[in-house]
Amino acid sequence: MKKMWFLALAALIAVLFVLNLLLGTVHIPFRDVLSILLSPPAPAGGGGASVFSGIIWSSRVPQALTALVAGAGLAVSGLQMQTVFRNPLAGPSVLGISNGASLGVALVVLMSGSLGGVALSRLGYLGDVAMSLAAIAGALAVMGLIVWVAQRVQSGVTLLIIGVMIGYLANAIIGVLKFFSNEEDIKAYVVWGLGSFARVSGDQMVLFVVLMAVLLPLSMLLVKTMNLLQLGDAYARNLGLNIRRARSLVILSSGVLVAIVTAYCGPIMFIGLAVPHLARALFRTSDQRILMPATMLAGAALALLCNLIARMPGFEGALPVNSVTALVGAPVIAAVLFRKKE
């Protein structure tokens, strides 16, 4: 039965990936999409075929690949957080790592116009790179603080509360920065905060996919550790597990995944929170050897679905990804709350 679910998820990902290439504001027939994928990109200015080729290679393929790996990364991060804290409502943003990334971007974007006199949104590619680097720096700074605290605090609940407080502190600083910033900088920051899989293209997309292709398999190395953590601290300690070290490693893995995804795509909500519950409901197991790859596949499928809905024909441009993920993820979280047995 579990093999059938794995095959079904893999087939669903393939179908959704193809639909992401086919559907959009510009209709491209399946035959043309297939011929474009099997041939090198056409030069610009060469007629209709080259226009379709440009749309596929410069927009739809990067978006689909970005959504696929970002969804997988956020889902795995959410599973790791829920396992460490044994809390079904824990997610990638629970420790304030996403807030740290947002603070890093806010410091660069909201202060660029005030101090440098030039809005970062006007710098094009350089501005995007600066925002990505700022997000990584902010997320890694908060993650380093959390790992340091995790090695000195025994209680997972205490660590959870500290993470939430760090998130509130980051949001407070962002609010102050907004108050003293000009409208153009605030708009650029708000647009970044809506989240988008369309922001990554070209060399950035290649680097992002390569990073996630390295990080996701590395996260699989923590499967045994996460299985032991599920048993409880006392039992895991009796089996020889160093609780503080194990908790720090899992938090580090989750934090790096969130930092990279947030840096490239902005803060993407609900996927990391909802997908682990979907995987548990489908596979009916708590064994991380099954849940980890299942969550990875389900996260990739859900992200592709959300990206598809955001770009459906009839919408001018694209809907914010967070609006779509909330519509999909919120009912899942509500169902968990109603079905949870006290």
Structure description:
- The chain has 342 residues and is mainly alpha-helical.
- 75% of the residues lie in helices and 0% in strands.
- It is built from 14 helices and no strands.
- α2 crosses α3 and α3 packs across α12.
Order of helices and strands: HHHHHHHHHHHHHH
Low-confidence stretches: none
Shape: globular
* Structural class estimated from helices and strands: mainly alpha
C-alpha-based Rg, rounded: 21 Å
Task: Please outline the major beta sheet.
Answer: none
User: What percent strand?
Assistant: under 5%
CA(first)-CA(last) distance = 29 Å
Give a quick precis of the structure.
This protein has 342 residues and is mostly helical. Helices cover 75% and strands 0% of the residues. The longest helix has 38 residues, at 48-85.
Keywords:
342 residues, mainly alpha, globular
Q: Helices, strands, pairings?
A:
Elements (H helix, E strand, L loop, with lengths): L1 H21 L7 H8 L10 H38 L11 H20 L8 H26 L5 H24 L3 H11 L8 H18 L3 H7 L3 H6 L4 H23 L5 H13 L4 H23 L10 H19 L3
